[in-house]
Amino acid sequence: MKSVLPIVTVVLAALAIWYVAAVLLNTPLQRDAFANAGRTDYSTQDFIVASLNMERPKLPGPHQVAAEMWKSIVVIAPTSKRSLVYHGLITLEETLIGFIIGAALGIGLAVVIVSVGWLDRSLTPWLVASQTVPIIALAPMIVVILNQFDITGIAPKAAIAAYLSFFPITVGMVKGFRAPDPLQLDLMRTYSASASQTFMKLRAPASASYFFASMKIGAAAALVGAIVAEVTKSEDGGLGARLLAGSYYGQTVQIWAALFAAAALSAALVGVIGFAGRIAERRMGFVR
Amino acid sequence: MIDRRLADLVPPFLFGLVFLALWELVVRAAGVPTIILPAPSAIAARFLVSIPTLAADFWQTVKGMLAGYVVGCGSGLLVAILVDRSDFLRRGLLPMGNLVSALPIVGIAPIMVMWFGFDWPSKAAVVVVMTFFPMLVNTVAGLESASAMERDLMKTYAASDWQTLTALRLPAALPFVFNALKVNTTLAMIGAIVAEFFGTPIVGMGFRISTEVGHLGIDMVWATILVAALSGSAFYGIVAAIERRVTFWHASFRTKGA
Predict the structure, then answer these.
(1) Which of A224, B17, B227, B229 could form a disulfide with A133 if both were Cys (CB 3.0 to 4.6 A apart)?
(2) Cβ contact (<8 Å) for B197 and A259?
(3) For domain A84-283, is the CATH number 1.10.4100.10?
(4) CB contact, 8 Å: B11 with chain A?
(5) Which CATH number belongs to the domain containing residue B153 in this structure?
(6) Model pTM?
(7) Is the ipTM reported for this complex over the cut 0.85?
(8) B69 touches chain A (CB under 8 A)
């Protein structure tokens, strides 16, 4: 808890920089607004206050974003299409479905790769190479292809979320299953343990920390996938659709609110996984 | 040594060939419509026909990507060295950096398009933000990585802070820095392409993908993805090759028994 003060300081500094930047960025717009309204007798203070409360600012002030979030999360009913809860739940649902599928497939493939020698040699280089490819570029196409099969709504977005979380999880879990050192593997051999026994009693427990690390990365990737997929097919709602609508109509405050909602969602997902990880590692005796 | 590396390449190469052959076979035998999945041969044909368009798209996207990558990684490195001077700042910024690294930063793309216009600078801006934090977090961790013993040695040499930094801690941080540089190659590609989904002049890989998807030119989408995949791996490969030259001393590059 020693780091609370530094973190608070950094957050406050970031807010201060944000306010200054907002005034600076909005200055030309606000000057025009005053000129159009025929006002010339404004003080510097009036000007700053006005530029922090514009309807469509270049950069809204933090309080504007906070007010918009309050309004669209608490005030507006969650069933309304103007509610961030409504859109956030859509995104969360896609992310979770995709993440679970991606994690299951990723762990499954990692198990196969670690146990089957020739697959390892022929597949691993491709998996590593796949990390360098911007696979998110495939997102719009997957939506269209699934559309051809009459798969619409949540499914295509969950598919992209699954697809994006799949690769990092596979790579992380392969590393995790390889984490035991040769000495421990040799010990298993001296016990004449079978391959599946070695796997269940040594490789699987040894991969615990890799498991939680790759789950965190996978969850974050799944959320990015869901949001990008929503941008390419925005009529069903979701935080990505909210971002796109905001950018169409110049509603900057709305964009920032959606962005912070997405950030909170991501932080919550990663936080829950991290928490589960700490509990699991304590139970398994890794942390004393 | 060369022979062994060639031998290592044979299985994945064969696997790739078999995969492509199966793909081609399935598409032809089952008569899969091009709109769903074009055959590899059709994609290759489309690729060869549209090389001028693809090249123009490539340059447009690479401009934003490279500019953002250089600025983002450079400023991340500089800020990390500055932050390293103050324990207070480090304890405040590091958790923030870790948090931000996990956020869906591509979401700022529409804002950047509003601020910097449709052309490549807005894409560069997205890439700057995406690459900055991984570089910051990794470099700060890297600067910590020199052992207490090595630091004590520098102290017995009466080395100044600056000398300790340049002669010991920065070189010791290089593997971490290169790790961030490699991670950032992919992030930069993703940022540049996704930012183009939000608005762009009528050229660029992200633009090509979203418009061709719009009128079902799926073979062109695949050709563009091929370009993205090739340039993404090439970019990563170049950084990895530089890493091998610069940090040849690191344990992960020693060959067994050499």
Answers:
(1) B229
(2) no
(3) no
(4) yes
(5) 1.10.3720.10
(6) 0.82
(7) no
(8) no
